[in-house]
Amino acid sequence: KNQVEQSPQSLIILEGKNCTLQCNYTVSPFSNLRWYKQDTGRGPVSLTIMTFSENTKSNGRYTATLDADTKQSSLHITASQLSDSASYICVVSDRGSTLGRLYFGRGTQLTVWP
Amino acid sequence: EADIYQTPRYLVIGTGKKITLECSQTMGHDKMYWYQQDPGMELHLIHYSYGVNSTEKGDLSSESTVSRIRTEHFPLTLESARPSHTSQYLCASSDLTLTYEQYFGPGTRLTVT
Quick one: pLDDT at residue B60? Predict the structure, then answer.
């Protein structure tokens, strides 16, 4: 069964600190892995998309890594800000589907305290 | 910021009412989607469309229906709302690049009393 598991479920850090969120998946075949940020009451916004051949991708203070062999990904946030408080969702797309089928994790709820 | 819009943003209605959730995008995307999301849970695909006059049911069974008469418009309708329909409904559209980047609207928070 294709699944996407994220950890931790929730995380609280102080402003200015770094943190790393984890994503493990069993989706096969694999096309790409995305990280989305979802603010409370809003739709998800894409942070990064990585294909099979990419190991790391950055978007400002966000850096995502991908190990396609172990089927693991991480999202590292540096110098956290209050505005980083949100749910971070890992999404994996399978290959060969004209729909571009997406498998969603439940997200990690990050809270940044001042 | 993606050019995809949803109205209303919040809706509280009584059981048995008919409702339509609106979704429109100005990016010219052929593919559009409706997702349902409960608090702390993953998004579930309930409907999708490849283009005008094309609609399909998603992975999660839903009593809602959709239509796609125009490329930019993908409304979702519930003929008779029930408390079990209380949820957040997210609309999305995607481009035709290899990664099928999906752009999400802000969502409609529906509460059925």
Answer: 82
